[in-house]
Design brief:
Length: 215
């Protein structure tokens, strides 16, 4: 039986493209976040409110299995938003992002957020060329997610605990989530926010300002 030797894996090819993406971002002085969270945790709503308060030029690449609904919501807020329909893939990969970048004027942006497909597992280990990963949790999901899905939270520079306006109505312990996050990564920023009311967004905007200053 004939054998085929593979000189490079698909993962290696993706890593090369991720590095190409990173070089492109740096050439434009662009800060880039890979935002990861479950479906319905409020990633798009967070970006909508961020767009209204962000002191800079914000762009987004929005991954979904089907439809451009989330990208359309962001475009209505004035964000330069490019949708990616994966057609079934549970996360974005560097070639998808590379193709989407051709549809953005990177020179006109200060910050690019890649809103990944709703999933706490598959996107965690994939490098898209971003500066850092930000995880999003929401109060209705329950407070055990960090313990159940540690691979993501080991890699995040910040976690946004969204929908804190619902704390009076849900069995959720913010202290437990903070403790679980910092046990995995003591340098992680854990920010309690509400995309509905705006609570906690001052700290989130300061986090973004710090990222831009470093870039």
């Amino acid at each position: 039986m004939a054998r085929i030797r593979l000189n490079s894996s698909a993962r290696s090819a993706d890593d090369r493209i991720a590095e190409q993406n990173r070089c492109l971002f740096r050439r434009h002085g662009l800060a880039v976040i890979n935002m990861i969270g479950s479906p319905g945790c409020g990633k798009t709503a967070i970006l909508q409110r961020t767009a209204r308060q962000f002191d800079g030029r914000l762009g987004a690449i929005v991954g979904d299995i089907k439809t451009t609904l989330d990208a359309d919501r962001l475009a209505e807020c004035g964000i330069a938003a490019v949708p990616i329909e994966t057609g079934g893939s549970c996360h974005l990969v560097p070639p998808m992002v590379r193709q989407a970048l051709a549809r953005l004027d990177l020179a006109a942006l200060d910050l690019l957020v890649i809103e990944n497909v709703g999933n706490l597992v598959c996107p965690a280990a994939v490098d898209l060329g971003e500066d850092l990963k930000v995880g999003v949790l929401s109060v209705p999901e329950g407070d055990e997610k960090v313990r159940k899905y540690p691979a993501l939270f080991l890699r995040t520079a910040a976690v946004l605990v969204n929908k804190v306006d619902l704390l009076p109505y849900c069995p959720f312990d913010p202290g437990r989530v903070r403790q679980d996050c910092l046990k995995l990564n003591p340098h992680m920023a854990v920010l309690e926010v509400s995309a509905t009311t705006g609570q906690g967004f001052e700290a989130w905007l300061e986090f973004l300002a710090g990222l831009r200053r470093r870039r």
